[in-house]
Hints:
- This protein is α/β, with parallel strands linked by helices.
- It has a single domain (53-230), classed as Alpha-Beta Barrel (TIM Barrel).
- It has eight helices and eight strands.
- It has helices spanning 19-22, 63-73, 97-113, 126-136, 151-159, 176-181, 200-211, 215-230, and strands at 10-15, 31-37, 49-51, 79-88, 118-123, 142-144, 163-166, 189-191.
- The protein has an eight-stranded parallel beta sheet, sandwiched between helices.
- Strand 5, helix 4 (126-136) and strand 6 form a beta-alpha-beta unit.
- The longest helix has 17 residues, at 97-113.
- The structure holds zinc ion (ZN).
Amino acid sequence: xxxxxxxxxxxxxxxxxxxxxxxxxxxxxxxxxxxxxxxxxxxxxxxxxxxxxxxxxxxxxxxxxxxxxxxxxxxxxxxxxxxxxxxxxxxxxxxxxxxxxxxxxxxxxxxxxxxxxxxxxxxxxxxxxxxxxxxxxxxxxxxxxxxxxxxxxxxxxxxxxxxxxxxxxxxxxxxxxxxxxxxxxxxxxxxxxxxxxxxxxxxxxxxxxxxxxxxxxxxxxxxxxxxxxxxxxxxx
Length: 236
Ligand SMILES: [Zn+2]
């Protein structure tokens, strides 16, 4: 974990790019990343990670081993959330929705049992996610990542206490993400690269511009949201 006091801290709430992790989380641009860790690989204690079985990666014969790997490692201090997990209707022809939902519900149980927030991949499955939230009544924070849906869908999710994570779509001038992030309270959103070929700095700057505020204000908001989601300060 980084221990130094630094002036500017950008938090990338979700990435698949482990370059930052390799540098012990603290990169040259002073960003801190939560890296989506591959199941089965050795857990590196050098940085923040999340653990989960992505709906694209479900292989039926591996499920039991992968879920037990997550349970085995999820209590480590540097595991920030359970995920990326969720439901993707565009993958229904590869993995049936019923199986995707079953795996997602296993993640919900792990998230609740081990008191770690849940990072959600949701493609055309907003109603399913909301129904499962009502069914399980989780205490842990849920975050739908890569949000680029419309304002009314955002309101439905936020109305259920679900946070939204925004990434590269903020850089596209006509994106839904830009319209939505302009409408949200500070406590309802976080920012991410998702490992796309873009910098977290540009995403913070876009969020500040769209919301008519300063980069510093966005940084403070993200630090507060990190602390609220995770339950401790960044440097602990
Ligand atoms: Zn992702």
